[in-house]
Amino acid sequence: MSLIVMKFGGSSVGTPERMQLVAKRIIERQQEGNEIIVVVSAMGDTTDDLIDQSKQLNANPPAREMDMLLSVGEQISISLLSMTIHQQGHSAVSFTGWQAGMITEKEHGKAKIKKIDPHRVITAVKNGSIAIVAGFQGMSEDGEITTLGRGGSDTTAVALAAEVGADACEIYTDVDGVYSTDPRVVKRARKLDNISYDEMLELANLGAAVLHPRAVEYAKHNNVKLVVRSSFTHNEGTVVREEAIMEQGVVVSGIAFDKNVARISILGVEDEPGVLAHVFGALADNGIDVDIIVQSGVQDGKADFSFTLSRNDADKALQVIESIRETVTHREATSDDNLVKVSIVGAGMVSNPGVAAKMFATISSLGVSIKMVSTSEIKCSCVIAPDKLSEVVIALHTAYGLDAETEVFVGGPKERR
Ligand code: ADP
Ligand code: ASP
Ligand code: MG
User: CA spacing 20 to 30 A to 233: which of 47, 330, 352, 387?
Assistant: First the structure.
């Protein structure tokens, strides 16, 4: 008998009909002789709708209250899914994140899991029930409700799978696997039979929503067998594992993009030792992650520098920079949040010097200017204006020989915003 964690995303449970299909799928998997723990996200657009509602009342709500609000979405879906399974004649028990023993750091809105005590979940499963756990939510040690960051239900599922020693963690979503890029943008994206943890981690970090980056990290560190597959078809999915059998000669294996990018520029900074340490130390103390950093030349003892970060953090970052003005004197700090980042990823890039040059040439052939660049051994990212993002992704996919011979994408229309 195997123990399986099955995770269903928001669009998979977005309507009563879909909820019924998902319940059927879960029961089928149990009847194959498996013990089942389910992790489920909020239905459809619920989380976005709750955010919109909060904004109507407070443009800048306290992070604690935001977590209190957003955790409600997952509680609706666990209870409804459990009822649906009962209606289909089987036993299920729903658990909030805290009932499932999900203890997190206190950082509201992007809390990390600290430890899990899943004894109630295990007891339910041992009693023959299907355990249904709310994704995305946890509780800090002092009893405050927290959430794990957008898309965080994947992380709940993988962390739980690691803790209970599950034989597999299956991520059911609205596409039938991991593709060479978002198949909704590139119709000839290739479905991958398998992908390594490292490449998947890079793609996820660079914006591929199909898996939450922290979920991939957990899977890698705990060697969890992770499978991405469709909620609606029985097609084979994509296996994420240590070593993937990549096609011979493939230098770039995937393309990702991130629409949630802002750039902060700090102009006329007094060029003294320790300035960068002050700025980025203060940002880190405030829980703000920074991505690409560029410093331009120094003139008259003053330097300009810019960095990218998640758009949601831009206002807070400006406040932090203002708060250290006395130590880091500067003329002004500005934010541009009308930017996107496109990245190529591939373990084969290390030994191929022309790969980045081809990326720059492809982007500029579309008349798009590159505002920032960052490279590592297995990726190259360019920050550009958003207008021609789809064209850029399509052109890069072709340029690196990734196009499938025919369109193979299987997925329903995107119902989430
Ligand atoms: P869920 O609600 O199931 O968590 P998400 O919207 O978070 O679903 O993730 C699935 C979406 O990820 C797909 O609908 C697809 O548009 C997008 N996506 C982005 N990059 C990729 C990729 N490389 N392969 C597959 N899907 C991708
Ligand atoms: N409901 C949360 C979100 O929309 C978590 C998730 O779907 O994984 O981000
Ligand atoms: Mg998701």
Answer: 47
Residue ranges of domains in the chain = 3-173, 255-399
User: Does residue 44 line the site of ligand 2, with CB under 6 A?
Assistant: no
pLDDT score for 178: 96
CATH number of this structure's domain 255-399:
3.30.2130.10
Which residue from 393, 250, 383 is spatially nearest to 306, judged by alpha carbons? 383
Distance 86 CA to ligand 2 centre (A): 25
- Give residue 204 CA to ligand 1 midpoint distance, Å: 10
The closest ligand to the CA of 157 turns out to be 2
Does position 417 have pLDDT exceeding 60, yes or no?
Answer: no
What span, in angstroms and rounded, lies between the C-alpha atoms of 265 and 285? 19
Residues of the chain with pLDDT > 70, as a percent, come to 97
Homologous superfamily assigned to 3-173: Acetylglutamate kinase-like (3.40.1160.10)
Could you give the 3-state DSSP secondary structure of residue 339?
strand
Gap from CA of 188 to ligand 3 centroid (Å): 22
Nearest to 151 by CA among 137, 136, 172, 169: 136
Helix (H, G, I), strand (E, B) or coil at 99: coil
pLDDT at 409 over 80: no
Q: How confident is the model at residue 295 (pLDDT cuts 50, 70, 90)?
A: confident
Q: Is the CB of 10 under 6 A from ligand 1?
A: yes
What does the radius of gyration of the chain's CA atoms come to, in whole angstroms?
22
